[in-house]
Amino acid sequence: MFDYFGVLISVIMGLALIHLLRGAVRLIQMRHEVRPYWVHIVWTINCAVFVLAIWWGMFWWRDLQDWTVGWFYFIAAYAIALFLWAAMLYPAEYLPGFDFEEYFFDNRVWFFGIQTVVFLMDIPETLEKGALHLRPVPPAYVILAPTMIGISVIGLLTKNRRIHAVLCVGWLAAVVGYMLLTPIARIFKG
């Protein structure tokens, strides 16, 4: 079942990465014609790193033998939420003169709202993998989960640009630190 389902998850998460990469490449190509915003660029990196980490972590589901319709739809919805989160960073097209700082703050509520949903969905997904003995829940997850939800809620509620500068760097540090301190680096049983 996982092989069949893994294709769907891969397509959805691949679309999220393609959207981010296409937006970033276009930003680079139009760098003299648009107004980039460094916080937006860091969030692009954050989103790409997180989507890749979740995609990697989905592989643990391969050991689940008895899939339910509920888990099928939940994991699919999680992948869709990740795509929607990534899609909020770049419009489908943008013209010369486009201001990414203005765009980021115009879409801030949607971006951080979806980001909050993404992490709220990550909690049961992570805990269920532990409950099903697919992989242990890393002890650092107890710190990561509330940190990420806190960053998301603060981003949702504030328009303060200095706070947003701290949030994007804090998110990246927390995710990279978590990945370096947990068994996420080892997916295959050896």
Describe it:
The chain is an all-alpha fold and 190 residues long. It has one domain. The protein is built from seven helices and no strands. Helix 5 runs antiparallel to helix 6. The protein starts with a helix and ends in a 9-residue tail after the last helix.
Q: How many strand elements?
A: 0
Category by helix and strand content: mainly alpha
Number of domains: 1
Given as residue ranges, the uncertain stretches (5+ residues, pLDDT < 50) are: none
Task: Please render the helix and strand layout as text.
Layout: H1 2-29, H2 38-57, H3 69-87, H4 100-106, H5 108-131, H6 141-157, H7 161-181
Helix pairs in contact: 1-2, 1-3, 2-3, 2-7, 3-5, 5-6, 6-7
Features:
mainly alpha, 72% helix, 0% strand
In short:
The chain has helices at 2-29, 38-57, 69-87, 100-106, 108-131, 141-157, 161-181. With 190 residues, it is an all-alpha fold. The protein has one domain (2-185).
